[in-house]
Automatic annotation (TrEMBL):
GTP binds at residues 17, 71, 102, 163, 266-268. The gene is moaA. Pathway: Cofactor biosynthesis; molybdopterin biosynthesis. It catalyses: GTP + AH2 + S-adenosyl-L-methionine = (8S)-3',8-cyclo-7,8-dihydroguanosine 5'-triphosphate + 5'-deoxyadenosine + L-methionine + A + H(+). This is GTP 3',8-cyclase. Belongs to the radical SAM superfamily. MoaA family.
Amino acid sequence: MADRVVDQLKRPLQDLRISVTDRCNFRCAYCMPAEIFGPDFQFLPKDKVLSFEEIEMVASVFADLGVRKLRLTGGEPLLRRDLPVLIGRLTAIDGIEDIGLTTNGVLLTKQAPLLYEAGLRRLNISLDALNDEVFKKLNGKGISSKTVLKGIDTALETGFEIKVNMVVQKGVNEQEILPMAEYFKELGVPLRFIEFMDVGNSNGWNWERVLTKKQMFGMLTEHFDLEPIDAAYYGEVAKRYRYKGSNAEIGFITSVSESFCSSCTRARISADGKFYTCLFASQGFDVKSLLRANLTYDECKQALKQVWENRNDRYSDERAVKGSPRRNKIEMSYIGG
Ligand code: SAM
Ligand code: SF4
Ligand code: SF4
């Protein structure tokens, strides 16, 4: 326990996820179940969402505190109007070395060239099945996997570095693991299998619906020869493997079966400007109010530094021992993953 506490304190602040909207054009049941996020759901009003100026200020302060990587997310980030303008501003911040974006890919065919022109180079694209029937049901909007695959092709042609994220749920899309692996091995795009997580309060999570890394790995090694790849940097979340004899790779995000809280280096800002130190938090620190109260840059920096230094989050470690230990968590579509 003492070692663990020391580990918690050592975690550096390296990357920042910024949610640019809480709205989405999908209703994936594991994230935004349609019965809760229906036509009457109250999304954030425009004046509660951080402006580009405010996002730029927050990102600059975090860069000053050590953040080198930014990831834009949502909701669906490509729904945010004029996103390339924001990307242009963020790429100009001193200290920021890398900007990525996580998207469901639906709007990519249209937007990929403009995003690239603005300076974005890396995309994580979510796709949970190739089979159309399965995928249409999963995304809750009847959208074909072909739409996302077309977006992926356009992004590759545009020059983006891409990873594909697949959330795997037992009894829902596990039969898609092998076809997805085959397809993206062939395309040379890294595929990451994500264990179904108990984010938020509304996705009906339980242990029975979790397919663990070990189980997925077992399915994959019946068909492929895989060898481990060393972590590329401290705090890398994916456990990566290469198909022997090729450069193609896969990865696993094991936050349920093998938690990694002691090396968690990630801060998160919600679309309404709250700073969260954990994906499973209940409460965030209100940065928007600081910005709108005209605090100076240094005052803002000190406040954010203190929040990070006082963090003691280890939700996934606790889940391994106690089950799902907290009820009132923020929703995934609000914080962005
Ligand atoms: N809308 C974009 C997308 O889907 O890529 C960005 C936001 S989404 C919340 C970010 C990532 O979280 C996606 O890869 C999504 O599949 C993943 N995700 C959402 N809910 C999840 C859950 N309950 N367990 C595991 N991953 C989840
Ligand atoms: Fe939307 Fe992404 Fe959540 Fe699916 S996972 S509902 S695409 S925010
Ligand atoms: Fe980081 Fe919280 Fe996830 Fe642990 S549970 S790895 S502290 S975000």
